[in-house]
Design goal:
The chain is α+β, with helices and mostly antiparallel strands. The protein has four helices and 15 strands.
Length: 258
């Protein structure tokens, strides 16, 4: 069985290795896969997006352990969520809001039997709660054994507005920024296949293209990324650095013709 790990811990310290060691102590036969440990510190929104886009590519039963936890040690809940094709173990702070449409059940992690310690560190729940619970879950412990059932509607959702249809396109927002500085929107890309389209940001309009190579070097363009969302990119450059835009910025896509 597979356990994936996603954190904002970076790789300079031993934190990630310690989480893997905790998992191996419980079940050394589990396969651990690193999604990323370079989420910007405390950036729950970015982690939400990365989990949402990674989830479809793993086998049924995979357990995703996600630890981006600015409120570690506080009264925020620690949860495990059963999905249609796996599980996620994480703090209840919005991390799982991008995949809640796939959720079928959830518990708060109140059964300390499955924690590493009855008295966990106030600053390292990744080691003491989330990694061991993920290992037990992947080893066959039923979800209901891990704690008290909670209402799926009570799980915290990040305030990212839905994309909405306009007269000649779709309006959305930037929901993530990747390593290359591409500005990834929450606008589904399938609407823009086989037509001419553009992206409007404030008063500026950028043509939609199929590939980076369709544009001149340094040109800002609209693209449909591999994740299926419309994004704003710069050919051989960093769109975020050039445009100085952040998550939540309003974006409008416009269809010119069919």
């Amino acid at each position: 069985m597979i356990v994936t790990l996603m954190t904002d811990f970076g790789l300079s310290d031993a934190y990630v290795g310690v989480m893997k060691g905790t998992i191996a102590q419980i079940n050394p036969r589990l396969q651990t896969i690193d999604l990323t440990h370079k989420i910007p510190p405390q950036d729950i929104t970015s982690a939400r997006f990365q989990l949402m886009t990674a989830y479809p590519y793993f086998p049924d039963g995979t357990v995703h352990v996600v630890v981006v936890d600015p409120s570690v040690g506080s009264s925020r809940r620690a949860i495990a969520v059963q999905l249609k094709a796996g599980f996620v173990v994480a703090p209840d702070n919005g991390l799982v809001s991008g995949i809640l449409e796939h959720a079928v059940a959830a518990v708060e992690l109140t059964n300390r039997k499955y924690w590493r310690s009855q008295t966990p560190s106030a600053t390292f729940h990744g080691r003491d709660i989330f990694a061991p619970v993920g290992a037990h879950l992947a080893s066959g412990v039923p979800l209901k054994e891990l704690g008290d059932e909670i209402d799926l509607n009570s799980i915290i959702k990040l305030p990212i507005p839905d994309a909405i249809a306009t007269e000649n396109g779709i309006q959305g927002v930037i929901q993530a920024i990747d390593h290359f500085g591409n500005l990834i929107t929450n606008i589904p890309g399938e609407r823009f296949f086989n037509c001419s389209w553009s992206v409007q940001i404030h008063q500026s309009i950028y043509a939609g293209h199929t590939t980076y190579a369709d544009a001149k070097v340094g040109e800002i363009i609209g693209l449909i990324g591999s994740h299926g969302w419309v994004e704003i990119a710069m050919n051989h450059g960093n769109a975020q650095s050039y445009l100085k835009l952040g998550i939540g910025t309003s974006i409008v896509t416009v269809i010119q013709s069919n």
